[in-house]
Amino acid sequence: MASSLGAIAARRATSNLTRLSSSPHAPSSLIQRRTFSASADGHHGPQRINIWQDPMSPSKWKEEQFVLVSLFGWGLLFTGAYKFFTRGKKNDDKKLVEAS
């Protein structure tokens, strides 16, 4: 029985293959569709520009450049805050060692 089921499946696959290859038009199930991709002819939203072309308008920057500038700014903020709040501690330690 298993061999007869295999034979039936093979015949169906062969008949489907010959039917598809002999038809001049491909069936709609085999046509590739790009329904969720963006259209090639138009833009979606405003045109993005480089940072150096308009540095005072972050909403117009390209996303990658905005991320890099934002990370750089946060790094400067944290580094500056760390140096500001810890600048006096190193000098006090040196003075205590010298006094004793």
What would your notes on this structure say?
Keywords: Membrane, Transmembrane, Transmembrane helix. The chain crosses the membrane at residues 66-85. 58% of the residues lie in helices and 0% in strands. The chain has 100 residues and is an all-alpha fold. It has a domain at 52-100. The chain is elongated, with a radius of gyration of 34 Å. The chain starts with a helix and ends with a helix. The mean pLDDT is 76.
Describe the structure in brief.
With 100 residues, the protein is mostly helical.
The number of helical runs is 2
Question: Beta-sheet strand percentage?
Answer: under 5%
Rg on CA atoms, Å: 34 Å
Q: End-to-end distance, in Å? A: 98 Å
What does the average pLDDT come to? 76
How helix-rich are the residues, as a percent range? 55-70%
Shape: elongated
Low-confidence stretches: none
In total, the number of strands is 0
Largest sheet: none
Order of helices and strands: HH
- Briefly note the structural class of the backbone: mainly alpha
Transmembrane segments: 66-85
Keywords: Membrane, Transmembrane, Transmembrane helix
